[in-house]
From TrEMBL:
A cellular component annotation (GO) from this entry: cytoplasm
Name listed for the protein in its UniProt record: START domain-containing protein
InterPro entries linked to this entry: START-like_dom_sf, START_lipid-bd_dom, START_lipid_transfer
PROSITE patterns on file: START
GO MF term (any one): lipid binding
The organism's place on the tree of life at top rank: Eukaryota
Domain START, chain residue ranges per copy: 27-203
Annotated organism of origin: Acrasis kona
Length: 216
């Protein structure tokens, strides 16, 4: 383990703040602008004070017998397999767990295809922590850094993942309430059309999961 107990405490305090931010974002739609409804899933967008990068969220019910813990395991399966990952998130070209702090708490190094030959690919170093109980699960991801972590890969720009969060709750038999929240700073040059496209894709992340799960 690379992180000291002091580092671990600091990382833990930071990620727990993001967990509360995720809960706050999902507790109300006040201040959020409705984007659209597709496949039974609603998406919203909001401005963030003193930040040019908007925050999006999207979600709704999906028909499945999965528990919240099952869903998080399903995400891990899709993200951890390069072949399966192409169906879930084709923009992810690299993903490695570089540190396991505790069970359900890891540090990831991720590479992302920008989607344009005119724009540099992105990468991210982030901590990801999953909180699970019987009926509810949260997964929170945010950028982090440490002197022992990998430096920026050649040809990539390191983005700042300010919050990437999943919420899954078993409210009814055969149904799972699923939501995703995203707030990122891509860093460096990204044209407006591509930034807006990425925002729209992030807002529909829960819909992508819904379609895949209900088709399996």
């Amino acid at each position: 383990m690379v992180l000291s107990e002091v580092d671990k405490k600091a990382f833990g305090e930071a990620i727990n703040k993001k967990l509360q931010e995720l809960k706050d974002d999902l507790s109300t739609n006040d201040g959020w602008t409705f984007l659209k409804e597709e496949g039974g899933m609603k998406s919203y967008i909001t401005d963030v004070p003193n930040d040019p990068n908007k925050k999006v969220k999207g979600g709704g019910p999906i028909k499945t017998n999965m528990s919240p813990a099952d869903f998080m395991a399903w995400l891990d399966e899709k993200n951890g397999d390069p072949v399966k990952r192409k169906d879930y998130d084709p923009s992810m070209i690299y993903r490695e767990i570089i540190e396991e702090i505790e069970p359900n708490w890891v540090v990831l190094h991720v590479g992302l295809d920008s989607g344009s030959m005119m724009v540099s690919n992105r990468e991210s170093l982030c901590q990801m922590r999953t909180y699970i109980d019987d009926k509810v699960a949260y997964r929170v991801t945010e950028s982090c850094d440490h002197e022992s972590f990998p430096k920026v890969m050649g040809g990539f720009v390191r983005l700042n993942a300010k919050l990437s969060g999943w919420y899954a709750e078993k409210k009814n038999e055969g149904e799972l309430e699923l939501w995703y929240v995203n707030h990122s700073d891509p860093a460096g040059y990204v044209p407006a059309w591509l930034a807006n496209k990425r925002l729209g894709q992030a807002a529909l992340s829960a819909l992508v999961c819904k379609k895949m799960i209900e088709e399996e």
